[in-house]
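Sanity check

After download, print the first record. It should look like this:
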Amino acid sequence: MRGKDVHQNHLFSYVSPEERVARDHPLRRIRTMADRALKELSREFGQLYSDLGRPSIPPEKLLRALLIQALYSIRSERQLMEQLDYNLLYRWFVGLSVDEPVWNASTFSKNRDRLLARDIAQQLLTKVVQQADEAQLLSHEHFTVDGTLIEAWASLKSFRRKGSSEPPPDDPGNPTVNFHGEKRSNETHESTTDPEARLARKSHQQGAYLSYCGSLLMDNRHGLPVAVDLRMASGTAEREAAVELLNGRGGRGVTLGADKAYDTRGLVAALREMGVTPHVARNTKRSGGSAIDGRTTRHAGYAVSQRKRKLVEECFGWIKTVGLFAQTKHRGVARVGWCFTFLTAANLLVRLRRLIPPLQPANA
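Expected structure tokens:
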């Protein structure tokens, strides 16, 4: 018998969002790990808010909403609020009841900016890394470092000569700019849209664009990111970040894998002084030759590091494609770095979902 296409709005619903989410849904494991990390940050959250005034958006719900935005590639916070209004799965993950109203997009963004004050993203990443460490997923000895360029939220048309006074543009929204034949560099020019963005390129075969330099330190055992760094792009930014990321991690047996861009005598010497063995890919075409010789490459561990280091590209790939961070929508090192760190924590949660076994019920 054919069913009737009847549109009837029910006044009451007796099924909670908890019952609608499948017991084996991937978000259940991610929410469990995220809730544990957020609970451990409760003291830090308390120091961000006053005891007076109207209640703001709970920081735990705000961060869970940002996790949903990263995990499901939602392009804006305004669209995130729209989807939170009707998506029961998102409501369940964030902690909103079916009847609870969602927040205004501008209010949500304003509350998110508050979390920049105490670098909550970095603390969240630290708590998630601790969970990976408790599950014995980290080696603490063998690492990989690599860097990537994050395109800034500024166009090349905004890259103007410092201190120059130019007439008003013919079209403020899309001005006509003729910079052909003009030599432009970071020493003489800067972006009027994002002054902290720098003109950079990854290789001589690619064009330069305004960007930031993001670096990841990865533990080689399971290819998990354990530390991040974001700074203004420059010719030495990646190597400077590598030294800072490894600060305090040196010791007997510690190794660092990296590509040819890190094969410089200055970096290799700095790593050895820190007690880190540089398993850097040899760049024999560099002037003066490679800083790595047979005393390092003859060991089997060097080949393992060179094979493992490629896993860091998977982290960058997830952040740029799923996290929609090939080009940032924020300006300034502080904001861009916060987002880069938060997306790294989200990527780590996704990886840990498969690596950490689920807790079994007591009566199982």
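If your output differs, re-run the checksum step. Summary of this record's structure: Residues 240 and 345 are 22 Å apart (CA to CA).
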